[in-house]
Write a structure and sequence with these properties.
This protein is mainly α and 143 residues long. The protein is globular and about 55 Å long. The protein is built from six helices and no strands. The protein has one domain (5-141): DNA polymerase, domain 1. Helix 2 (25-36) runs antiparallel to helix 3 and helix 2 (25-36) crosses helix 5 (87-106). Helix content is 57%, strand content 0%.
Length: 143
Amino acid sequence: MEPNSREFYKRCAFQKYCNTVLHNEACDAHKELRRHKANVRCGTKQGRKQLMRILEEDKIGACSIENVKLSDAKEWALRMKEKGYSFKTINNHKRSLKAAFYTAIQDDCIHKNPFDFQLNTVLEDNTEPKEPLGTKRRRVVYA
């Protein structure tokens, strides 16, 4: 049986978009985005490797990219919090995934970005604001 042209096009476009199929298309989408933005600092590369490891271990990593819904993305954020990741770390990883899924939108693989939501609607931002050193403490630190 011949696949319908829309599904066949989506599969071919995404196959071109993702160089190889690891565990899932979400990992591949992130890899493809990394390949296009290669001139980055070492810390950025380490953060990208960490996100790839997280995606490979998580069940959202096993989903087909067109099957990831907004509810799946929000559940992913909750699972990340349960694993002990901080709000800022989860938000940084969500930003990377949002960019990867945006690229999939441009390639006509999906229509809506499931990671296009405010994280503070799902998780409480318990990040303590940093306070600048006062003049007395600055003298002690730099003395």
